[in-house]
Amino acid sequence: AIPLVVAVSTSIAAKSGLLIRDRQAFERARNLQAIIFDKTGTLTEGRFGVTDIVSLSGEENETGENLKDSNERILSLAASLEASSEHPIATGILESAREKGVQTQAVEEFSSIPGKGVQGLVDGNKFLVVSPGYLEENGIALKNQKIEEIEAQGKTVVFLLEESKVLGAVALADIIRKESREAILKLKSMGIKCLMLTGDNRYVAAWVSKELELDDYFAEVLPHEKAEKVKEVQAEYITGMVGDGVNDAPALAQADVGIAIGAGTDVAIETADIVLVKNDPRDVVDIIGLSKKTYSKMY
Ligand code: ADP
Ligand code: MG
């Protein structure tokens, strides 16, 4: 039988938008020493807007109509490829193309490269939209001052490639959830280490980490490495993980307490021990408080 205080707490939790799916994990929550937050969609809203398009095809002195044409071509090709992806970056690029009335083209042999981007054929030619990490791994050199400036602003940059030739870059910006700062501040005041895990580039990660005064972060982490990072932190601390994406599911399962954002993917929600129905990271503080109250009454 479920002890009465636990049953009462579970229903109090449910009323405040905390769905407890695993009671043992809820009990462990009172002992948490570190919490790892996924960035996109968890600490940030996960709604990307396109801020810049940069042509990198090498044709210098592009001005006026030429520049507009090449930027539209970059957006059109990127949007065509992203039409089959559900990543927040894809949604941002598609929305921008729609707003600007840019047409998309049919894509054949689409596939996604997990944690790196997407690829497919347009008119029989291979195009990709990929992360800076993908360029590095494939020895595709790129030194560009404009890109460096954009990255320094904490924006997410993806590159449009035709085969291994870089045609251009699309920069996107996301918004830090306004509740994130307060959540981190409170957790830190409780002596809990606050960390961030993201597949996004190191500049964006550094920027968000600084804004939120996080204790540490891991950037450019591939989907299959996320659970491994949680394990590393667990070697030192009793660790919670808060995430929303398909990629976060193994990390949520690995953590001592796995917490999913309610607006997240079905996979994340099904894997999590606790679900934040209101999508509010401050509710992590409430979980720990409620867990402490509940179990200190029992023992
Ligand atoms: P996270 O959810 O931690 O932000 P992901 O693992 O989903 O990270 O993605 C990591 C990076 O891979 C993104 O920042 C982006 O550079 C690249 N990426 C992933 N999916 C796409 C996509 N559909 N289009 C372009 N880039 C993508
Ligand atoms: Mg995410």
From TrEMBL:
It is found in: Cell membrane. It comes from the Archaea. Belongs to the cation transport ATPase (P-type) (TC 3.A.3) family. Type IB subfamily. This is Lead, cadmium, zinc and mercury transporting ATPase. It comes from Methanosarcina barkeri MS. The chain holds residues 436 to 734 of 788 of the full protein.
